[in-house]
Amino acid sequence: MPNGDIIGTLSPILGIEGTLAAVPDAELVGELSLYAEILEPYAGPYTVTPLARISQILPTAGKRMEENVVVLEVPYYETSNLSDGLTVYIAETIGGG
């Protein structure tokens, strides 16, 4: 490989800054600097079940995510009641769990 070739791969957390200029023999001259922003990995849950009357915040700001966050379906339960009807529970648990 001739000296001066630029070969490689950049990941989303790397960057290049600097200047290059073309000179007569189709060469490039200048200076480039590589920098990396090392993000702390997210260590919290990646699966969330919605809850009634409770906001949930996953502390992901400024963290590196390794997976997609999965939001599960909203829990929905129906039970009979003493008035010969149905009681519906949405985003709540019943029976102590």
Question: Quick gist of this model?
Answer:
The chain has 97 residues and is mostly beta strands.
What do you see in this structure?
This protein has 97 residues and is mainly β. Helices cover 0% and strands 39% of the residues. β1 and β2 (27-36) form a beta hairpin. The chain is rod-shaped.
Key structural traits:
two-stranded antiparallel sheet, mainly beta, rod-shaped, two-stranded parallel ribbon, about 0% helix, single chain
Produce the secondary structure layout.
Blueprint: E1 14-23, E2 27-36, E3 40-41, E4 47-48, E5 63-64, E6 70-71, E7 76-80, E8 86-90
Parallel strand pairs: 3-5, 4-6
Antiparallel strand pairs: 1-2, 7-8
In terms of DSSP E residues, the strand content is 35-45%
Largest sheet: 2 strands, antiparallel
Q: What is the arithmetic mean of pLDDT?
A: 81
Biggest sheet: strands side by side, in what order? Answer: 1-2
Distance between the termini: 65 Å
- Rg on CA atoms, Å: 27 Å
Q: What fraction, in percent, of the residue positions are helical?
A: under 10%
Q: Would you tell me the structural class of the helices and strands? A: mainly beta
Order of helices and strands: EEEEEEEE
Shape: rod-shaped
Number of strands: 8
Tally of individual helices: 0
